UniProtKB/TrEMBL annotation:
This is AraC family transcriptional regulator. It comes from the Bacteria. The keyword Isomerase does not apply. GO terms for molecular function: DNA-binding transcription factor activity; sequence-specific DNA binding. Residues 198-296 form the HTH araC/xylS-type domain. It comes from Chryseobacterium lactis. Keywords: DNA-binding, Transcription, Transcription regulation. PANTHER family: REGULATORY PROTEIN PCHR. Transmembrane segments: none annotated. Pfam families: HTH_18 (PF12833).
Length: 297
């Protein structure tokens, strides 16, 4: 995939995040106040193109077939291009235009799915070629799920290069394709409420030792933080902040009783920048200070 951008002195953040013989990933973020500004996107011959729309009110016109699309934020399409083609993208009201584009060669997908292996694989490839993954219901593009948001963020923030990046990208693309196939099989425009809570809990379980807040979780999964708070509390009957605190305290008690680490080191390990805050929270939870617990164990 190549992307040709009409910058014309606009502010932009764009370029290849990854490029190999079979896969190309481009991040595009442009801000231009003039109504004439458009981004020109080139799809390669015999390629599958995943396009994730990450800003509001994006319009796209495919010049090869004269088809126009209007996207809301956090929608996506999976499009097959048999010939090299160009599409124009722009936003309403001259807002920032931001999207992530992943191009995968046909031969790579063919070998990955192996349609000669079974009927299910053949049907998936047939659906991909006939662009049956553009609209989920009638003329409505599918919404990105929580898991998709997390994968996209991981791709955009991955810093390693070389073979590790190649293996990482290929793994993440397989995950994205699985999520897409599952979404279309279930015909769900949105993940169910329990699934949202489950993904938020998973993120917290893996990151509670950092100074994370609902705002960061909202940005990570691409959802309003108030919705995240509401759905998490509805499923787990506690607030996000209380759940994080509980995880930290349980880990702190385990480290104090089973480890020779300094109390200050334990505080940092459990996500507390200041030892005074850690001591206060620990005493409130267990009725004893970290020092006294260690001395009396």
């Amino acid at each position: 995939m190549a992307v040709k951008i009409c910058r014309m002195r606009n502010q932009s953040k764009n370029g290849f995040l990854f490029r190999s013989q079979d896969i190309k990933i481009v991040m595009q973020e442009d801000s231009d106040a003039r109504p004439s500004f458009k981004s020109h996107m080139l799809e390669g011959k015999s390629s599958f193109n995943l396009l994730f729309l990450l800003s509001q009110n994006i319009n796209m016109e495919a010049q090869d077939c004269g088809t126009s699309f209007s996207f809301k934020k956090n929608q996506y399409i999976l499009h097959y291009s048999s010939e090299e083609s160009v599409a124009e993208l722009w936003t309403e009201n001259h807002e920032t235009l931001k999207y992530l584009q992943i191009q995968i060669n046909y031969s790579y997908i063919f070998n990955l799915i192996n349609p000669e292996d079974n009927l299910e694989s053949a049907e998936i490839l047939e659906n991909m070629i006939h662009n049956n993954f553009i609209f989920l219901h009638k003329e409505t593009p599918p919404d990105m799920t929580v898991e998709m948001h997390m994968i996209i963020n991981e791709i955009m923030n991955y810093s390693k290069k070389g073979v590790l990046q190649k293996l990482f990208v290929e793994t993440e693309i397989i995950k994205l394709l699985i999520l897409i196939f599952e979404q279309f099989n279930g015909k769900n425009t949105l993940k169910s409420t329990p699934e949202i809570g489950k993904m938020v809990k998973k993120f917290i379980d893996e990151n509670y030792h950092r100074n994370i807040k609902a705002e960061e979780i909202g940005k990570m999964v691409g959802m309003n933080q108030n919705i995240i708070r509401k759905e998490f509390k509805a499923q787990y009957h506690t607030t996000i902040s209380h759940y994080i605190s509980e995880l930290r305290m349980l880990k702190a008690r385990k480290l104090i009783t089973n480890n020779e680490m300094m109390i200050k080191e334990i505080a940092i390990e459990c996500g507390y920048e200041y030892i005074q805050n850690f001591t206060r929270a620990f005493k409130k939870k267990f009725g004893v200070s970290p020092e006294n617990l260690r001395n009396n164990k």
